[in-house]
Amino acid sequence: MYSHMMVGSNDTDKSKKFYDALFEKEGRADDKGRLSYGRRGSVFMVSRPIDGNPASIGNGSTIGFNFDSPEEVDAWHQRGVAAGGTAIEDPPGYRENAFGKLYLAYLRDPDGNKLCGLHRPAQ
């Protein structure tokens, strides 16, 4: 359904350091300074807003990343905190709701964007 997700940043150098650590790979930058990280056909991007105004977080917005195991989610979360992100909400773990049983971990990046690591166990 989605081709890519993009978040705004006021400091792309700081964002690059955070996301390089979070994804364990170096992001690619284009000629406009936008950062790009690919995984399994999806692309996550970071950019200064093209309208020249400061980047701001979307209240109620969350960007979720799929992982193959709870251990991968935990490692992703730990890398994010170590690279300057902020752990938010409940600690990483299983939650059960109308969407079924999910393993979730939440972070805010250095600009305040809300990120989620998610593993869906076999039901």
Automatic annotation (TrEMBL):
Pfam family, one: Glyoxalase
Sequence ranges assigned to domain VOC in this UniProt record: 1-120
PROSITE patterns (UniProt xref): VOC
InterPro entries according to UniProt: Glyas_Bleomycin-R_OHBP_Dase (IPR029068), Glyas_Fos-R_dOase_dom (IPR004360), VOC_core (IPR037523)
Record's protein name: VOC family protein
Source organism per UniProt: Sphingomonas rhizophila
Biological classification of the source: Bacteria, Pseudomonadati, Pseudomonadota, Alphaproteobacteria, Sphingomonadales
